[in-house]
Design brief:
mainly beta, four-stranded mixed β-sheet, globular, three-stranded antiparallel β-sheet
């Protein structure tokens, strides 16, 4: 784990997606954070020690899916399926598929395995799965503020975790999508799916994969930041948490009653033409009962005395 010193930093951004606004001053106490996402090998050790069964491996409750053919309610998870041509980017169903049998053990579907993936981030973990691992490890999931403080690596206000240039000196700094999403992946960074942790340079705090590779769960419920939040260090909130969901944000969606937590960091599927979110300020709402092929997590340890 790496130590993140307490301090005040500028969280969010006024220059990209609306849910990142406003940029505001936030203070956090010092904490430890995993230097890279939890790997397949790490998660396997947890499962072997506890017998834990992830949400993607459990039978689905027919009562939660009224009107759906019971034969379709089989364990599985959501897997990315690239298209063969440009498509309407407003319809994510064109490139996501629910695959029976997909799980952390079989990340590409029932016939796949994790052979050769021990040092890749574990995926297909819902929020409760990440939380269960963190508790077993004697750790916790980070707050959004903690995660963003760590991701910035001491560079306050820069676009990326490494600075303001997307590819400094022609070197790719994170596992993201190059080309036109979701059909053209130029593989300029060398990876189509996930990459081994630590394959790209660490940030200023010595942390790996704080941009791209996999999205990461945080403990905060998703809300739109308050436009009246203080923007001066003198009044910065300390160790903020969002502990209650705001379901009004998703009233028009079929699963609006499912709470959303904040995920951070972007993934290997993030591209400038779609989901330009492999930046520390970027954030996204994710339903807590959802697992996918591009979401993982890392953990924190907070000193008992809250030393900054």
């Amino acid at each position: 784990m790496g130590w993140i010193p307490g301090g005040t930093f500028r969280m969010g951004s006024d220059h990209f997606y609306f849910e990142e606004r406003p940029a505001r001053e936030v203070s956090v106490s010092g904490f430890w954070i995993d230097s890279h996402p939890v790997t397949v090998a790490d998660f396997r050790a947890f499962v072997d020690a506890t017998g834990y069964v992830t949400s993607a491996e459990r039978p689905l409750d027919a009562a939660a899916f009224p009107g759906v053919d019971p034969s379709l309610l089989v364990p599985g998870s959501v897997v990315f399926a690239p298209t063969s041509h440009p498509v309407d980017l407003r319809d994510f169903k064109l490139w996501w598929r629910y695959l029976p049998g997909a799980s952390w053990r079989s990340p590409s579907g029932a016939a796949s395995s994790t052979d050769g993936l021990d040092q890749h981030p574990v995926v297909h973990v819902a929020y409760e799965d990440a939380l269960a691992y963190s508790m077993w490890a004697g750790k916790a999931l980070p707050s959004e503020a903690e995660w963003e403080r760590a991701a910035r690596g001491g560079l306050d206000g820069t676009v990326y975790t490494w600075g303001d240039q997307p590819i400094p000196g022609g070197r790719h700094m994170a596992n993201t999508w190059q080309g036109e999403f979701p059909w053209q992946n130029l593989l300029a960074d060398g990876f189509f799916g996930t990459s081994p942790v630590c394959a790209f340079p660490a940030n200023g705090f010595g942390l790996y994969d704080m941009a791209g590779n996999v999205w990461e769960w945080t403990e905060d419920f998703f809300r739109i930041p308050n436009a009246t939040l203080p923007t001066s260090p003198c009044c910065a909130p300390r160790d903020p948490r969002v502990e209650e969901p705001d379901l009004r944000l998703f009233g028009a969606e079929p699963d609006a009653a499912v709470p959303r937590r904040v995920i951070k960091g972007g993934s290997h599927l993030c591209a400038p033409n779609y989901c330009f979110r492999y930046r520390p300020a970027a954030r996204q709402a994710e339903a807590v009962d959802t697992s996918t092929a591009h979401i993982g997590f890392r953990c924190v340890v907070r000193p008992a005395n809250g030393t900054a």
